[in-house]
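ASSEMBLY PREDICTION REQUEST
Request ID: AP-0331
Submitted by: J.K., bench scientist
Number of chains: two
Total residues: 965
Priority: normal
Notes: Please return the full assembly, not individual chains.
Input sequences:
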Amino acid sequence: MAIDVVRDQRTQVNDFAIKLANVNGTGSASANSLLMQAIFRMGIPVSGKNLFPSNIQGLPTWYEIRVNRTGYTARALDYDLVVAMNSQTYAQDIADVRHGGYVIYDSSWPLDPDLSRDDVTFLGIPLAKMCLENFKAPRERILMKNIAYAGAVVALVGIDVELVADLLAETFARNEALRDSNQRALRLGYDFAMEHLRCPLPFYVERMEANGTSILINGNLAAALGCLYAGATVAGWYPITPATAVMDNFIQLCARYRRETVVSEDPNVPDTTRNNYLIIQAEDEIASIGMVLGAGWNGARAFTSTSGPGISLMNELLGLAYYTEIPAVIIDVQRTGPSTGMPTRTQQADIMMCAYASHGDTKHIVVFPANPYECFEFAVQAFDLAERFQTPVFMLSDLDIGMNDWVVPELRWDDAYVWDRGPVLSDEDLSRMSEFFRYNSANDDFVAARTLPGSDEKGAYFIRGSGHDKYGHYTENPPEYQEVVDRLKKKHAASAAHVPAPVIERRDGAAIGVITIGSCDLAVREALDQLADAGLPADFLRVRGFPFVAEVRAFVEEHEHCFVVEQNRDAQLRSLISIETGVGIETMHPVLAYGGFPLSAQQVVDSVLAKLEN
Amino acid sequence: MPSITKPLIPLSPLPKNDLGLTIRDYEGQMSTLCAGCGHDSVTAAIVHAFWELSTPPHMIAKLSGIGCSSKTPTYFVRGAHGFNSAHGRMVPIATGAIAANRELTYIGISGDGDSLSIGLGHLMHGIRRNVKMVYIIENNGVYGLTKGQMSASADIGSRPKKGEANALAPIDPVTTALSLGATFIARSFSGDKEQLVPIVKAAIAHNGFALIDVISPCVTFNDHEGSTKSYKFMRDHEVKEVQTDFVPIRAEIRAKIPADDAIEVTMHDGSVVHFRSVPEGYDPHDRMKVEEYIRDRQSRGEIVTGLLYVDESAKELHELNATPTSALAKVPYSSLCPGAEALASMQEDFR
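STATUS: Completed
Returned structure:
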């Protein structure tokens, strides 16, 4: 069976993809996101994906904008328009344009005739020349080229130029000189295109009302907001791409929302500020998680944010937290491994590591957001889960979610929210007890009430990562040791009912099932629509939490063929489902994309069809 | 069974501290270390110091890493809250705990393996952040629990019980801490309780990271001829020229101490450290001079003990971060969550 997804030229209103090829460090990022934001403001579903190198200046970088009126905003692989601003990658970028597409290039210099293609239209704009003539400072001449090509794109795809001018005015509200240069550059590109080129192209935008109250936000900011709203007060962290912005944002949010002024009673003493938070940039990730454990032991909501290499380093203390039952939240913004891997590329390859982090028998609670909206919600839930189950909880985001701006529904907060601190004994509780032992009073979730340091002597106990019995005392006795670790296993299993439930969507006549996770969501949904249109409806399940609920196993068993779509080489989700639910692995076919770029629907459709044809 | 509950035998009236507690109330379980281990003497000094200061046991948090030294927190203040963590990782855990609740008194017990090898980076950064805690290194130059490997504090030429003499330069926690800007540095000898108790008390009063390097001989693996961390070596080479007394805030006995050439340091809580005797030209506030003096003595094969350096003016972690004066962990949720309205209004900027 083969499906041709043919693009209808006449219906290319609000349905196209642009690839902008730039040189890293030249200021292109702001011009590119300006275009994306303008389209968002026109009410049209849009996505912007930054495909950038692990480099400060000089290497190739791309930005992809996908406009889609139906809301298919996963990465597209066929580009209607390529803005080729990087001579190093001309050949590849020009090759990437779809048949019948367009290329914008800087015609200040002639284009190498070898790069020419008969089936695409080349639109030359003398960007360098225009900027040389219009701007004086060398740096400005480079920077403004970006805004100038953005201006040309605005004209070519019919973006409201006044709206873009407003955006620039907002961005540079406090810098008149920059605002002026940017406005001039925008008009240079825009006017050139309007005068010399056919505007609009056969694909263009028209205002819609699809975005409603939606917002444009990246997952790292959303996760930081979640931590703020969850009431996290202590954070330990170490800089790492692509997770750094989680803490950068948390620091900024705390400075804005957690800082109180303490009015001095003495007129000679100035007022002071009081910070209801303490964020420590640690010496490494081991220290980061150590700080989180110390704070969690003491009853503060504490977290760290990191990426795969950081989790590798944290493994030892994660086992300590698991075994001694200390709440902790770890946000892992996954990048491409193994080892240093590709730090600026995305992947979902920390699933196994996080599920079983540390030596010995360990199992952790993991939540898997698919977009920034869920980053916010799941971050709050992660703190509740961590305290309710007195254990580390991972939130597995990834670079695509964390660092790209996504259109998601407005974040909502319920002021009636009450944080779940889990079973904690107060001095009053202790006074009613004849004696206290740390691990011997498990509740229905197999969680034993704890005391916090500073509580009455009766509640004092000694935390130890060494073998302990249910009283918290050191032991080397097999049954006493096993009793504790067996309870930990039951506790982990009990948390399945409290982690975010899987999203399950069924279609009439579906013969196959597709299981996915995290940021694959949009691409898989689009792929499923394409398969259904081609007469192959499929049921959908997106895992959102570990341990798995029974529905996950049932879903696999219901379908003769299941496809498990994930972004890693080793089909980690598929293995984890099989290991943990006991369901056979044979009927789960891996669909894997692990090159480091976000998934596209086409990859899913191709893989599914290839398997079914065999 | 590696921990043995100490029988509480009521002895004829033991003196009571301000809280009405006897010294037995500050003890812990029976030590399971080797008979004669220097660490047990350090434990005794800690018990004494807390008892004398009348620190409420439940307001003490005692932490450790892994090793013989790290077992000792079970042997003191049974009513304190304890955390035996992972090898070398006590400082970050203590740092996080202190961040969350500054109301407790924190004491960390470590050894030379825990502090100077696997945990050296963390120790340095704990010093650098000036986390308010007492940090005791029970330093015996040897890995006891794994049966006698030389540690990073072993002196050149120091001989293990079996094998070759150590050829690598030792890491000296005292001079290292001086170079890192530590705000309280002391060295003592486990065999000298008289010196150790006031040092521990001053460390508890210190407003920042208080490092005490205690030479604490290992009777099983490193107390022989040829070891520089043995009882005999210490007794022959210890120099006690820097002598201090600690005067708690409540005791108004300052006048009783002759004030001629003595140096007084008023601690953050108002208590006083009194340098009753120091060598000529020695200034416990002058990092350079202290280091010069220690190195000079070191070059003569001597080990200087005493409270060697103190700086009570530096800000500790919480002061540096302008956190509330009470525990961060107790800040009510209503002060932490900006609420639905703030979330809605901030999203105006996300469109």
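REVIEWER COMMENTS: Confidence is low (pLDDT under 50) at residues 1-10 of chain A.
SIGN-OFF: pending second reviewer
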